[in-house]
């Protein structure tokens, strides 16, 4: 398993404060392995996997089991609770455990669905930090990350070093995706087997067991329809009509797919942009190779990279970042708008053409922020003049490898 120093560094930063850390992310993205890596730094550690029947019985028989575990010294023990969101009473248990013993233990709680969605009566507000674990990205594996401060000072900086190595890395992510098992296999056949089973198993097991959704086959059909929707605003009425379900049902199902990390979505942003669209969303897949079209797949890969960056920057406390898209009523669109404190800091688009789109040229002039166009392949980068500013055109793998 490839080491993940980015997330171990975030863990060390978050645990400077006496709070639990919720490690959330897709199934089979490496949460258990990362937790084990983190645990190596703790002489005293307790592990419980809720999917193990014997472990479940241990917790039910003795809810304070971790307080009586054997120690080798007086250092703070790590309590690692894996797939704990599958326990119906997990919020109530954690609230009681943390309030009783939180200062004497470090809790790491991992789950394959959204752990930050509180329910009435069992809020964990003020008791945890959320750390999202993402599939491998070029930024994580490329090893060329700048600091967040350096990036924000000059987001158009790019290096063409290690072109062959980074090009191979990008091809691997495009063909195999960033989930550890298929990516590390290095084989397209392994990805096909893994991907065909992954979505079906997640829907038929986790979603069926943890939600009230009974129309599992229809939900699978919705998931199969989504790859063709990547790269354009999602038409929920059309999806609902095709599935022959109510509009609100389609909305609920889409939210469920996001909750279980099969998809993620971006909302429009239009502050200061005349005729900007302010409703709707664009959807992307965590398993990017499911997107067949090369341009839409490139956009999906870039969306994963930027969303990962926003997630980790927010977790580390560098700001209040958000990722959106920009679209006007006359259908001029920029794929991504990176904002901080509700102010735009960067425009990014992805496409096969090496020429910046008229939309990014127009909106860079209007918003007066740096702009980048990412292409799948190019021998080098260039900067295209746009009045007093320039648009960077660069290979996606080279620019993204420097993303903090």
Instruction: Provide the domain count.
Output: 2
Q: Which runs of at least 5 residues are low in confidence (pLDDT < 50)?
A: none
| Classification by helices and strands | alpha/beta
DSSP helix fraction:
40-55%
Instruction: State the strand order across the main sheet.
Output: 8-9-10-11-13-12
How many beta strands in the DSSP annotation?
Answer: 13
Query: What overall form do the CA principal axes indicate?
Result: globular
Please trace the helix and strand order, writing H or E for each element. HEHEHEHEEHHHHHHHHEEHEEEHEEEH
Give a short synopsis of this structure.
By secondary structure, the protein is an alpha/beta fold.
Secondary structure layout:
Blueprint: H1 5-14, E1 20-24, H2 31-39, E2 45-49, H3 53-61, E3 78-82, H4 90-101, E4 106-111, E5 128-132, H5 138-142, H6 148-153, H7 163-176, H8 180-185, H9 188-210, H10 216-225, H11 236-243, H12 247-259, E6 263-266, E7 282-285, H13 294-316, E8 321-327, E9 333-340, E10 343-350, H14 358-367, E11 371-375, E12 382-386, E13 389-395, H15 396-400
Parallel strand pairs: 1-4, 1-5, 2-3, 3-4, 10-11, 11-13
Antiparallel strand pairs: 6-7, 8-9, 9-10, 12-13
Helix pairs in contact: 9-10, 11-12
Describe the structure.
This protein is α/β, with parallel strands linked by helices. The chain has two domains: 5-132, 3-Layer(aba) Sandwich (Rossmann fold); 138-400, no CATH class. It is 40% helix and 18% strand. It has 15 helices and 13 strands. It has helices spanning 5-14, 31-39, 53-61, 90-101, 138-142, 148-153, 163-176, 180-185, 188-210, 216-225, 236-243, 247-259, 294-316, 358-367, 396-400, and strands at residues 20-24, 45-49, 78-82, 106-111, 128-132, 263-266, 282-285, 321-327, 333-340, 343-350, 371-375, 382-386, 389-395. The strands form three sheets. The chain has a six-stranded mixed β-sheet with strand order 8-9-10-11-13-12, sandwiched between helices. Helix 9 (188-210) packs across helix 10 and helix 11 packs across helix 12.
């Amino acid at each position: 398993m490839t080491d993940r120093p980015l997330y171990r560094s975030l863990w060390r930063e978050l645990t400077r404060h006496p709070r639990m850390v919720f490690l959330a992310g897709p199934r089979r993205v490496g949460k258990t392995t990362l937790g084990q890596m983190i645990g190596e730094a703790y002489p005293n550690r307790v592990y419980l996997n809720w999917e193990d029947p014997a472990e479940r019985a241990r917790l039910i028989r003795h809810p304070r089991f971790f307080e009586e575990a054997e120690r080798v010294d007086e250092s703070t023990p790590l309590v690692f609770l894996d797939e704990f969101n599958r326990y119906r009473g997990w919020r109530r248990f954690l609230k009681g455990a943390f309030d009783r013993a939180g200062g004497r233990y470090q809790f790491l709680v991992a789950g394959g669905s959204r752990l930050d969605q509180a329910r009435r009566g069992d809020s964990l507000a003020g008791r945890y930090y959320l750390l999202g674990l993402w599939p491998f990205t070029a930024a994580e594996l490329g090893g060329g990350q700048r600091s967040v401060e350096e990036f924000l000072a000059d987001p158009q900086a790019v290096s063409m070093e290690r072109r062959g190595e980074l090009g191979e890395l990008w091809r691997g992510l495009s063909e195999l995706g960033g989930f550890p098992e298929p990516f590390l296999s290095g084989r397209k056949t392994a990805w096909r087997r893994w991907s065909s089973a992954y979505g079906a198993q997640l829907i038929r097991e986790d979603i069926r067991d943890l939600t009230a959704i009974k129309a599992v086959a229809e939900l699978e059909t919705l998931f199969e329809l989504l790859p063709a929707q990547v790269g354009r605003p999602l038409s929920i009425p059309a999806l609902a009509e095709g599935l022959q379900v109510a509009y609100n049902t389609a909305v609920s199902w889409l939210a469920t797919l996001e909750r279980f990390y099969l998809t993620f979505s971006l909302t429009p942003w239009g502050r200061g942009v005349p005729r900007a669209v302010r409703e709707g969303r664009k959807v992307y897949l965590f398993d990017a190779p499911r997107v067949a079209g090369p341009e839409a797949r490139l956009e999906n890969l870039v969306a994963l990279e930027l969303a990962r960056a926003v997630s980790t920057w927010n977790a580390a406390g560098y700001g209040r970042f958000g990722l959106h898209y920009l679209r006007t009523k006359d259908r001029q669109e920029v794929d991504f708008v990176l904002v901080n404190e509700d102010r735009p800091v960067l425009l990014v688009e992805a496409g096969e053409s090496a020429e910046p789109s008229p939309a990014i040229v127009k909106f860079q002039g209007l918003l007066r922020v740096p702009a980048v166009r990412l292409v799948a392949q190019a021998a080098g980068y260039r900067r295209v003049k746009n009045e007093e500013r320039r648009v960077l055109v660069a290979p996606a793998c080279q620019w993204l490898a420097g993303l903090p």
